[in-house]
Amino acid sequence: MSGISFTGIGSGMPVKDLVDAFVNAEKVPFQQRLNKQGAKLTTNISANGALKSSLSSLATSLEKLKDVENFQLRKASGGDEFIKVSSDKTAQVGSYDIKVNNLAQAHKTMSNTSFVSDAAVGEGTLSFATIEDVRAGNSGFSIEVNDTDTLSDVRDKINSAATNSDVTATIITEDNGQQRLVMASNSTGLDNEVVVTATDGAGLDATNGLANLRSAAVADLSKIEADDPLDPRDPLNNNLQQIKPALDASITIDGVITLTSATNEFENAIDGITLTAQKAHDVDDDISTASVSEDNSMVARELGAFVKAYNEYYDLAKTLGKADGEGASGAMVGDSMLRGVTSKLRNMLSGSFDSNNGNTLSLSQLGVEADQYGKLTLDSDRLKETLDADPTAVQQFFIGTDDKPGFAASMEGLLDNYTKSGGLIESRIDGYKNQLDKLDDDMEVFGRKMEKYEKRLLAQYNAMDLLVANMTATSNSLMGQLNNMPGVVRKTR
């Protein structure tokens, strides 16, 4: 027990203190040596982990500069309250006048006849189909109406029909309590106009209430021609009042070409450009303009991110490899791998890569230069000049070809050797971790050895103490006997 001394019973010696002193003489130097080695290994693991993280960030900063889809982009502009404009990289630079004639609209009808809320509407079948269904020969969907079903029941059956994705039914209640059924198409456009037919349970009866919920006085869908939309003024529609006609959106481009769309979106109406109509132009409204221009901002942004990531690596490498005679050296001072990767990066930064038509480009021509301290700077004006002059050459510089990788791909290959799973840095870190594990094992083995050593010393000193105690007892006994013998005079001091 630490802090407590056990005095020998026979000898009076501090046995426990003596044993602790002998054990510590063996243990302390060993522990100090292992702790020092462990601290060094832990520092090495942290330093190499930081190095790997920094190199990984450098590789990540080049990800977008390896993808051809991020070069020679286009920027769409001109969106206003009437149109929204977007584009992809296939769009050609230019501008276009756009007039929105009308927006797409969903078909909505209401029953001409009103119904008592709790009265049955009649028995039979209601069938629903869009113009697109009819032209394609599809039957749409149907519901069966029982002789006890009210208008609310009809509404619910329409909305819950398993195959209904086209129509939503609602009820409007008038001041007098009478109800009308409103049916609206779920999609805009002429082809999504909804046709309703009703068949009475005992044969079609024009006086039956259910017949008042159909689009036609005669259930003859053959009157809808394959190339003609249903005319809302046709007698076929005389049982339902049209609230909103189905409409395709319509726009006119440059005052010449008129286009229509079932939705308000005109995808690739102009190559690479998608126009979305938002509001129809009135007579006095200014015509909208959709413009497309080159957009090289991504290249500038990502190259700036690379410069930033490299400078962060440079600062870290400088700290890790710092040599200081006063004892404040970096954790990787003199490390061959750190020196090697830094040297390779510098060589690649100053190298040239194929650009276009047999020419080459370098980072310096893109405005990237190293200052007097070795850190990178980016001249945005220089980069813009090069991009404006030959964007294809800049793209080729970064991406290259399968046979001749560009700057970004080459840099990725270099960095991957160090940062990948099982790469140079990870292998080194694993080695350090294995050494740490061995130190733990050595400490455990040594601890057991010290326990045995302590027990052996205690046993030896206790045996000696017992021997001294026995000898003392014998001596005392002899002295007592001598003192009791006649004629023996004890000499006192």
Strand content: 15-25%
The H/E string reads: HEEEEEHEHEEEEEEEEEHHEEEEHHHH
Strands in their spatial order, largest beta sheet: 1-15-3-11-12
Major sheet description: 5 strands, antiparallel
- Summed over residues and divided by their number, the pLDDT gives a mean of 84
Termini gap: 41 Å
Low-confidence stretches: 1-6, 202-208, 216-238
Q: What number of domains?
A: 3
Shape: elongated
Total strands: the figure is: 19
- Indicate the structural class: alpha+beta
As a whole number of angstroms, the C-alpha radius of gyration is: 47 Å
Percentage of residues assigned to helices: 25-40%
Number of helices: 9
Explained architecture:
This protein has 493 residues and is of the alpha+beta class. It folds into three domains: 251 residues; 78 residues, no CATH class; 139 residues, no CATH class. The chain contains nine helices and 19 strands. The strands form six sheets. The chain has a five-stranded antiparallel sheet with strand order 1-15-3-11-12, with no helix packed on it. A hairpin with a 3-residue loop joins strand 11 and strand 12. The protein is elongated and about 155 Å long.
